[in-house]
Amino acid sequence: MDDVFVHAHGICESRQVGSGTRIWAFAHVLPGAKIGKNCNICDNVFIENDVVIGDDVTIKCGVQIWDGLRIGDKVFIGPNATFTNDIFPRSKEYPEAFAQTRIGDGASIGANATILPGLQIGAKAMIGAGAVVTKNVPPNAIVTGNPATISGYVNISREKVRSFTAGAPDLQSVTEPVSLHVGGAMLYPLPRFSDMRGELSPIDFGKDLPFKPTRHFLVFNVPGGKVRGEHAHKVCAQFLMVIRGKVSIVLDDGNDTCEVSLDSPSAGVYLPPSVWGIQYKFTHDAILSVYASHPYDPEDYIRSYEEYLSYIPNKCMQG
Protein backbone atom coordinates (compact mmCIF):
# COMPACT_ATOMS: atom_id res chain seq x y z
CA MET A 1 0.00 0.00 0.00
CA ASP A 2 3.02 2.30 0.14
CA ASP A 3 2.61 3.19 -3.55
CA VAL A 4 -1.13 3.96 -3.25
CA PHE A 5 -2.22 7.59 -2.99
CA VAL A 6 -5.26 8.31 -0.82
CA HIS A 7 -6.38 11.92 -0.57
CA ALA A 8 -6.62 13.35 2.95
CA HIS A 9 -10.43 13.47 2.55
CA GLY A 10 -10.70 9.99 1.02
CA ILE A 11 -11.24 6.68 2.86
CA CYS A 12 -9.67 3.42 1.75
CA GLU A 13 -10.35 0.48 4.10
CA SER A 14 -9.13 -2.18 1.67
CA ARG A 15 -5.58 -3.54 1.82
CA GLN A 16 -5.93 -5.08 -1.65
CA VAL A 17 -5.11 -2.07 -3.81
CA GLY A 18 -2.43 -2.17 -6.51
CA SER A 19 0.55 0.15 -6.72
CA GLY A 20 0.11 3.46 -8.49
CA THR A 21 -3.62 3.65 -7.79
CA ARG A 22 -4.97 7.06 -6.73
CA ILE A 23 -8.06 7.52 -4.57
CA TRP A 24 -9.31 11.09 -4.41
CA ALA A 25 -11.37 13.22 -2.03
CA PHE A 26 -14.63 11.92 -0.55
CA ALA A 27 -14.16 8.52 -2.20
CA HIS A 28 -14.82 5.51 0.06
CA VAL A 29 -13.45 2.00 -0.57
CA LEU A 30 -14.78 -0.78 1.71
CA PRO A 31 -12.47 -3.48 3.14
CA GLY A 32 -13.35 -6.37 0.81
CA ALA A 33 -12.80 -4.53 -2.49
CA LYS A 34 -9.94 -5.62 -4.76
CA ILE A 35 -8.48 -2.87 -6.95
CA GLY A 36 -5.68 -3.29 -9.49
CA LYS A 37 -2.66 -1.17 -10.35
CA ASN A 38 -2.61 2.36 -11.76
CA CYS A 39 -6.32 3.01 -11.28
CA ASN A 40 -7.79 6.48 -10.86
CA ILE A 41 -10.72 6.64 -8.42
CA CYS A 42 -12.13 10.16 -8.60
CA ASP A 43 -14.06 12.27 -6.08
CA ASN A 44 -17.29 10.97 -4.53
CA VAL A 45 -16.86 7.36 -5.69
CA PHE A 46 -18.16 4.57 -3.43
CA ILE A 47 -16.80 1.01 -3.85
CA GLU A 48 -18.51 -1.82 -1.95
CA ASN A 49 -16.97 -5.10 -0.67
CA ASP A 50 -17.64 -7.82 -3.26
CA VAL A 51 -15.97 -5.88 -6.07
CA VAL A 52 -13.02 -6.73 -8.31
CA ILE A 53 -11.46 -3.96 -10.40
CA GLY A 54 -8.63 -4.59 -12.88
CA ASP A 55 -5.55 -2.52 -13.75
CA ASP A 56 -5.53 0.94 -15.37
CA VAL A 57 -9.22 1.59 -14.67
CA THR A 58 -10.63 5.12 -14.51
CA ILE A 59 -13.75 5.76 -12.46
CA LYS A 60 -14.97 9.35 -12.72
CA CYS A 61 -16.85 11.35 -10.10
CA GLY A 62 -20.17 10.32 -8.61
CA VAL A 63 -20.07 6.57 -9.39
CA GLN A 64 -21.10 3.76 -7.03
CA ILE A 65 -19.57 0.31 -7.58
CA TRP A 66 -21.85 -2.17 -5.81
CA ASP A 67 -21.33 -5.76 -4.69
CA GLY A 68 -21.12 -8.14 -7.66
CA LEU A 69 -19.27 -5.82 -10.05
CA ARG A 70 -16.35 -7.38 -11.94
CA ILE A 71 -14.46 -4.76 -13.93
CA GLY A 72 -11.69 -5.70 -16.37
CA ASP A 73 -8.49 -3.87 -17.26
CA LYS A 74 -8.39 -0.42 -18.90
CA VAL A 75 -12.10 0.21 -18.37
CA PHE A 76 -13.38 3.80 -18.37
CA ILE A 77 -16.47 4.62 -16.30
CA GLY A 78 -17.85 8.12 -16.89
CA PRO A 79 -19.28 10.50 -14.30
CA ASN A 80 -22.51 9.48 -12.59
CA ALA A 81 -22.76 6.16 -14.43
CA THR A 82 -25.14 3.94 -12.45
CA PHE A 83 -24.81 0.22 -11.77
CA THR A 84 -27.49 -1.95 -10.18
CA ASN A 85 -27.18 -5.39 -8.58
CA ASP A 86 -30.67 -6.35 -7.41
CA ILE A 87 -33.42 -7.12 -9.94
CA PHE A 88 -36.24 -6.66 -7.36
CA PRO A 89 -34.89 -4.31 -4.69
CA ARG A 90 -36.85 -3.86 -1.47
CA SER A 91 -35.86 -1.91 1.60
CA LYS A 92 -34.32 -4.20 4.26
CA GLU A 93 -34.82 -7.27 2.04
CA TYR A 94 -31.64 -8.76 0.59
CA PRO A 95 -31.13 -11.52 -1.99
CA GLU A 96 -29.04 -14.61 -1.13
CA ALA A 97 -26.46 -13.34 -3.63
CA PHE A 98 -26.25 -10.17 -5.69
CA ALA A 99 -26.20 -10.50 -9.46
CA GLN A 100 -22.72 -10.30 -11.02
CA THR A 101 -22.18 -7.72 -13.72
CA ARG A 102 -19.00 -8.10 -15.79
CA ILE A 103 -17.33 -5.26 -17.71
CA GLY A 104 -14.84 -6.55 -20.29
CA ASP A 105 -11.33 -5.23 -20.82
CA GLY A 106 -11.13 -1.86 -22.54
CA ALA A 107 -14.87 -1.12 -22.34
CA SER A 108 -16.13 2.45 -21.81
CA ILE A 109 -19.29 3.43 -19.92
CA GLY A 110 -20.55 6.92 -20.79
CA ALA A 111 -21.72 9.56 -18.34
CA ASN A 112 -25.12 8.92 -16.73
CA ALA A 113 -25.49 5.49 -18.35
CA THR A 114 -27.49 2.91 -16.37
CA ILE A 115 -26.50 -0.78 -16.37
CA LEU A 116 -29.07 -3.33 -15.18
CA PRO A 117 -28.01 -6.25 -12.92
CA GLY A 118 -26.22 -9.38 -14.11
CA LEU A 119 -25.23 -8.16 -17.57
CA GLN A 120 -22.09 -8.80 -19.59
CA ILE A 121 -20.50 -5.79 -21.24
CA GLY A 122 -18.09 -7.12 -23.88
CA ALA A 123 -14.46 -6.14 -24.31
CA LYS A 124 -13.95 -2.68 -25.87
CA ALA A 125 -17.70 -2.05 -26.01
CA MET A 126 -18.76 1.61 -25.89
CA ILE A 127 -21.86 2.54 -23.87
CA GLY A 128 -23.15 5.96 -24.91
CA ALA A 129 -23.91 8.72 -22.43
CA GLY A 130 -27.34 8.30 -20.86
CA ALA A 131 -27.91 4.84 -22.33
CA VAL A 132 -30.07 2.40 -20.36
CA VAL A 133 -28.54 -1.04 -20.88
CA THR A 134 -31.02 -3.88 -20.38
CA LYS A 135 -29.30 -6.67 -22.37
CA ASN A 136 -25.80 -8.08 -22.72
CA VAL A 137 -23.57 -5.96 -24.96
CA PRO A 138 -21.32 -7.76 -27.49
CA PRO A 139 -17.59 -7.00 -27.71
CA ASN A 140 -16.77 -3.86 -29.72
CA ALA A 141 -20.43 -2.79 -29.94
CA ILE A 142 -21.51 0.84 -29.59
CA VAL A 143 -24.87 1.08 -27.82
CA THR A 144 -27.02 4.17 -27.29
CA GLY A 145 -30.55 5.08 -26.27
CA ASN A 146 -33.24 3.86 -23.88
CA PRO A 147 -33.44 0.93 -24.03
CA ALA A 148 -29.95 0.75 -25.49
CA THR A 149 -29.54 -0.69 -28.97
CA ILE A 150 -26.49 -1.25 -31.12
CA SER A 151 -25.78 1.72 -33.34
CA GLY A 152 -22.36 0.69 -34.62
CA TYR A 153 -19.09 -1.02 -33.85
CA VAL A 154 -15.78 0.44 -32.72
CA ASN A 155 -12.74 0.30 -34.99
CA ILE A 156 -14.95 0.82 -38.06
CA SER A 157 -14.02 4.19 -39.49
CA ARG A 158 -16.17 5.98 -42.04
CA GLU A 159 -13.98 4.77 -44.91
CA LYS A 160 -14.51 1.17 -43.79
CA VAL A 161 -18.29 1.42 -44.18
CA ARG A 162 -19.36 0.59 -47.72
CA SER A 163 -22.95 1.01 -48.83
CA PHE A 164 -24.21 -0.73 -51.96
CA THR A 165 -27.62 0.54 -52.95
CA ALA A 166 -29.85 -0.81 -55.70
CA GLY A 167 -29.45 1.21 -58.88
CA ALA A 168 -26.70 3.42 -57.45
CA PRO A 169 -23.47 3.96 -59.40
CA ASP A 170 -21.35 2.30 -56.69
CA LEU A 171 -23.16 -1.01 -57.25
CA GLN A 172 -23.51 -0.75 -61.01
CA SER A 173 -19.77 -0.19 -61.36
CA VAL A 174 -18.91 -3.48 -59.59
CA THR A 175 -18.35 -6.14 -62.26
CA GLU A 176 -15.69 -8.29 -60.58
CA PRO A 177 -15.29 -9.49 -56.96
CA VAL A 178 -13.95 -6.70 -54.75
CA SER A 179 -11.71 -7.36 -51.73
CA LEU A 180 -13.04 -6.02 -48.45
CA HIS A 181 -9.55 -6.32 -46.91
CA VAL A 182 -10.78 -8.42 -44.00
CA GLY A 183 -9.61 -12.02 -43.87
CA GLY A 184 -10.28 -12.78 -47.54
CA ALA A 185 -13.87 -11.47 -47.46
CA MET A 186 -15.13 -10.28 -50.85
CA LEU A 187 -18.05 -8.39 -52.35
CA TYR A 188 -19.39 -10.39 -55.31
CA PRO A 189 -21.53 -8.79 -58.02
CA LEU A 190 -24.43 -10.91 -59.26
CA PRO A 191 -26.15 -10.85 -62.66
CA ARG A 192 -29.15 -8.56 -62.92
CA PHE A 193 -31.57 -8.18 -65.80
CA SER A 194 -34.30 -5.58 -66.01
CA ASP A 195 -37.10 -4.87 -68.46
CA MET A 196 -40.70 -3.69 -68.39
CA ARG A 197 -41.81 -6.98 -66.81
CA GLY A 198 -39.59 -6.50 -63.77
CA GLU A 199 -36.13 -7.61 -62.70
CA LEU A 200 -34.33 -10.95 -62.60
CA SER A 201 -31.17 -11.84 -60.67
CA PRO A 202 -30.12 -15.46 -61.38
CA ILE A 203 -27.35 -17.32 -59.54
CA ASP A 204 -25.29 -20.05 -61.18
CA PHE A 205 -23.82 -22.07 -58.31
CA GLY A 206 -20.93 -23.21 -60.42
CA LYS A 207 -20.01 -19.75 -61.70
CA ASP A 208 -21.42 -16.83 -59.73
CA LEU A 209 -20.59 -17.95 -56.17
CA PRO A 210 -17.14 -18.64 -54.68
CA PHE A 211 -18.23 -22.17 -53.66
CA LYS A 212 -20.99 -24.67 -54.40
CA PRO A 213 -23.55 -24.44 -51.58
CA THR A 214 -24.83 -27.44 -49.65
CA ARG A 215 -27.28 -25.48 -47.50
CA HIS A 216 -29.48 -22.39 -47.73
CA PHE A 217 -31.47 -20.47 -45.14
CA LEU A 218 -33.33 -17.16 -44.79
CA VAL A 219 -33.25 -14.67 -41.92
CA PHE A 220 -36.32 -12.42 -41.69
CA ASN A 221 -38.78 -10.77 -39.30
CA VAL A 222 -35.84 -9.60 -37.19
CA PRO A 223 -37.11 -7.10 -34.59
CA GLY A 224 -35.62 -3.62 -34.77
CA GLY A 225 -32.36 -3.30 -32.92
CA LYS A 226 -31.68 -7.04 -32.82
CA VAL A 227 -28.37 -8.51 -33.96
CA ARG A 228 -27.74 -11.80 -35.76
CA GLY A 229 -24.58 -13.74 -36.41
CA GLU A 230 -21.98 -12.86 -33.78
CA HIS A 231 -19.92 -15.94 -34.55
CA ALA A 232 -17.28 -17.37 -36.85
CA HIS A 233 -16.94 -20.77 -38.52
CA LYS A 234 -13.87 -22.97 -38.50
CA VAL A 235 -14.57 -24.64 -41.88
CA CYS A 236 -17.86 -23.42 -43.32
CA ALA A 237 -17.90 -20.47 -45.74
CA GLN A 238 -21.03 -18.38 -46.31
CA PHE A 239 -22.43 -16.11 -48.98
CA LEU A 240 -24.86 -13.44 -47.77
CA MET A 241 -27.20 -11.39 -49.91
CA VAL A 242 -30.22 -9.24 -49.21
CA ILE A 243 -33.27 -10.07 -51.28
CA ARG A 244 -35.47 -7.48 -49.63
CA GLY A 245 -35.02 -4.48 -47.35
CA LYS A 246 -31.63 -3.47 -46.00
CA VAL A 247 -29.05 -5.13 -43.72
CA SER A 248 -25.58 -4.13 -42.52
CA ILE A 249 -22.89 -6.80 -42.32
CA VAL A 250 -19.83 -6.42 -40.07
CA LEU A 251 -16.69 -8.44 -40.88
CA ASP A 252 -13.82 -8.82 -38.41
CA ASP A 253 -10.63 -10.89 -38.72
CA GLY A 254 -9.15 -9.84 -35.38
CA ASN A 255 -7.03 -7.11 -36.97
CA ASP A 256 -9.19 -5.37 -39.55
CA THR A 257 -12.90 -4.62 -39.53
CA CYS A 258 -15.34 -3.30 -42.09
CA GLU A 259 -19.07 -2.85 -42.52
CA VAL A 260 -21.05 -3.43 -45.69
CA SER A 261 -24.61 -2.20 -46.11
CA LEU A 262 -26.69 -4.03 -48.74
CA ASP A 263 -30.19 -3.38 -50.02
CA SER A 264 -30.12 -5.21 -53.35
CA PRO A 265 -29.81 -8.81 -54.58
CA SER A 266 -27.37 -7.53 -57.18
CA ALA A 267 -24.39 -8.17 -54.91
CA GLY A 268 -23.49 -10.39 -51.98
CA VAL A 269 -20.76 -10.77 -49.38
CA TYR A 270 -18.49 -13.78 -49.27
CA LEU A 271 -17.77 -14.58 -45.61
CA PRO A 272 -14.84 -17.01 -45.44
CA PRO A 273 -14.22 -19.37 -42.53
CA SER A 274 -12.28 -17.87 -39.62
CA VAL A 275 -13.86 -14.41 -40.09
CA TRP A 276 -16.17 -13.08 -37.38
CA GLY A 277 -19.53 -12.02 -38.84
CA ILE A 278 -22.32 -9.83 -37.49
CA GLN A 279 -25.57 -8.77 -39.15
CA TYR A 280 -27.56 -5.84 -37.79
CA LYS A 281 -29.57 -2.72 -38.76
CA PHE A 282 -32.29 -4.91 -40.28
CA THR A 283 -35.13 -2.90 -41.74
CA HIS A 284 -38.58 -4.19 -40.78
CA ASP A 285 -39.02 -5.85 -44.20
CA ALA A 286 -35.49 -7.22 -44.57
CA ILE A 287 -34.89 -10.76 -45.82
CA LEU A 288 -31.30 -12.00 -45.65
CA SER A 289 -30.48 -15.00 -47.84
CA VAL A 290 -27.49 -17.14 -46.75
CA TYR A 291 -25.77 -19.91 -48.72
CA ALA A 292 -23.41 -22.21 -46.78
CA SER A 293 -20.60 -24.39 -48.08
CA HIS A 294 -21.12 -27.14 -45.48
CA PRO A 295 -24.05 -28.81 -43.68
CA TYR A 296 -24.95 -27.52 -40.26
CA ASP A 297 -22.47 -28.60 -37.59
CA PRO A 298 -22.64 -27.04 -34.10
CA GLU A 299 -18.99 -27.96 -33.53
CA ASP A 300 -17.97 -25.70 -36.42
CA TYR A 301 -19.15 -22.53 -34.63
CA ILE A 302 -17.00 -20.16 -32.57
CA ARG A 303 -19.58 -18.19 -30.59
CA SER A 304 -17.36 -16.36 -28.07
CA TYR A 305 -15.34 -13.41 -29.37
CA GLU A 306 -12.66 -14.06 -26.75
CA GLU A 307 -12.42 -17.67 -27.94
CA TYR A 308 -12.25 -16.41 -31.52
CA LEU A 309 -9.29 -14.13 -30.77
CA SER A 310 -7.51 -17.12 -29.19
CA TYR A 311 -8.39 -19.35 -32.14
CA ILE A 312 -6.93 -17.09 -34.86
CA PRO A 313 -3.21 -17.42 -33.96
CA ASN A 314 -3.64 -21.17 -33.45
CA LYS A 315 -5.28 -21.39 -36.88
CA CYS A 316 -2.34 -19.49 -38.42
CA MET A 317 0.16 -21.88 -36.82
CA GLN A 318 -1.80 -24.89 -38.08
CA GLY A 319 -1.97 -23.36 -41.56
From TrEMBL:
PROSITE patterns with a match to the protein in the record: HEXAPEP_TRANSFERASES (PS00101)
Single GO term (MF): isomerase activity
Keyword Acyltransferase on entry: yes
Domain Sugar 3,4-ketoisomerase QdtA cupin: 187-311
SUPFAM superfamilies found in the cross-reference section: RmlC-like cupins, Trimeric LpxA-like enzymes
Family matches, as InterPro entries: Hexapep (IPR001451), Hexapep_transf_CS (IPR018357), QdtA_cupin_dom (IPR008894), RmlC-like_jellyroll (IPR014710), RmlC_Cupin_sf (IPR011051), Trans_hexapeptide_repeat (IPR050179), Trimer_LpxA-like_sf (IPR011004)
Pfam families named among the record's database cross-references: FdtA (PF05523), Hexapep (PF00132)
UniProt KW keywords: Acyltransferase, Isomerase, Repeat, Transferase
Highest taxon of the lineage: Bacteria
Similarity section: Belongs to the transferase hexapeptide repeat family.
Protein name, entry field: Isomerase
Originating organism: Geomonas terrae
